[in-house]
Structure formats: structure tokens, C-alpha cells
Design goal:
51% of the residues lie in helices and 17% in strands. The chain is an alpha+beta fold. The protein has a 4-stranded antiparallel β-sheet. The protein starts with a strand and ends with a strand. Pfam families: DUF1840 (PF08895).
Length: 113
């Protein structure tokens, strides 16, 4: 399921619910519907930047490696491109940019409405 984030100061951002959950949990926000007010945006940016920085310190976990092998096997597959893991920072970047724009332009970020 997708979550559509909206703000008057930035284009819409679509995220899979499973990826948005980590960010919304960090900000103590509900998944179904919510708002990050202009006043909350600066704190949200700081929290998300901190979480991104922390995620960059850790290597790909053993669990992710197991999942990759389980889904793609350990045999050579010359017909497919190599698997690339999408990092948390890459997934969070569009929403982080929206939050920065909301902070700078004093607008709210909404979803589920």
C-alpha cells in the first residue's frame, strides 16, 4: 500500500507504507492519517537526518544478506543484473526534502487526507 505525502511547498511524495513506517514511527505519527505542522518540521528534519546518519554507520545486516540469497539463490544468474540494496537514506530522501521545504516555507505536510 502507498502513502501519499502532500505539502503546498513541495511536489507529492509517494512511499510504500512499509518504508514510511520507520519514518513515521520515528516522528511518533500515525500511519493512516496525519500532519507534520510547520512548527514540527524543523524537529522532524533533525530527527530524520540523525536516523539517516545512524543508518549509514551500519553495514548491510546478515538478515538482509539471507533474504537476498533466499530470493535469488546462490547460483550464478547471468540473465539478471546484480542485486542492489536500496538504503534507508535513499528511500527517505524525497520525504526529507519535502520536510525541509515545509520548514523553510512554513507549510504543513499531510498524508491520508
Amino acid at each position: 500500500m502507498l502513502i501519499k505525502f502532500k505539502s503546498k511547498s513541495y511536489p507529492e511524495v509517494l512511499m510504500y507504507q512499509e518504508h514510511a513506517k520507520r519514518i513515521l514511527d520515528l516522528l511518533h505519527k500515525d500511519m493512516e492519517r496525519g500532519v507534520i505542522t510547520a512548527e514540527e518540521a524543523a524537529r522532524a528534519v533533525a530527527l530524520l537526518e540523525g536516523e539517516i546518519e545512524e543508518s549509514r554507520k551500519h553495514q548491510v545486516s546478515e538478515q538482509v544478506e539471507r533474504d537476498v540469497h533466499a530470493h535469488h539463490g546462490e547460483t550464478e544468474d547471468n540473465e539478471h543484473e546484480p542485486i542492489e540494496v536500496v538504503s534507508f537514506s535513499t528511500r527517505a530522501y524525497p520525504l526529507l526534502e519535502m520536510l525541509r521545504a515545509a520548514r523553510d516555507n512554513h507549510t504543513d505536510v499531510l498524508w491520508g487526507v
